[in-house]
Amino acid sequence: MQTDTSPVEGVSAVTLSDSTIIGCRAIYVGTGGNLKVTVGGTAVTFKNIANGTLLPIRAQIIWATGTTAADVVALF
Questions:
Q1: For residues 68 and 19, is the Cβ–Cβ distance under 8 A?
Q2: Which of 23, 59, 62, 74 is the most exposed place for a label (fewest CB within 10 A)?
Q3: Are the C-beta atoms of 75 and 58 separated by less than 8 Å?
């Protein structure tokens, strides 16, 4: 299990895609909804995420299909 407590070094607005690999350290969800991601090779949907939620997950893919959340920002 990786642990990195240092501050993030960059951020980027996410363009949702079913194939683009981003490799982020965390995800900020500005407008709530469902968020489908691939983490550690496994696709999972986080349901009913509230506005302004920070998910401390290392996602490889943030899917367009199955995602209803918006204003998603990747932290690197």
A1: no
A2: 23
A3: no
For the whole model, what pTM was predicted?
0.92
Domain residue ranges in the chain: 19-75
Of 10, 12, 23, nearest in space to 72 by CA? 12
Closest CA to 32 of 55, 56, 50: 50
pLDDT (0 to 100) of residue 6: 86
Q: Do 38 and 46 touch, CB atoms closer than 8 A?
A: no
* R_g of the chain computed on alpha carbons: 11
Closest of 18, 44, 35, 19 to residue 27, by C-alpha: 35
Distance, in Å, from the CA atom of 31 to the CA atom of 40, rounded to the nearest integer, reads 25
Q: How far apart are CA 69 and CA 76, in angstroms?
A: 20
Taking only the tens place, the pLDDT of each residue in 1-49 is 566 788 999 999 999 999 999 999 999 999 999 999 999 999 999 999 9
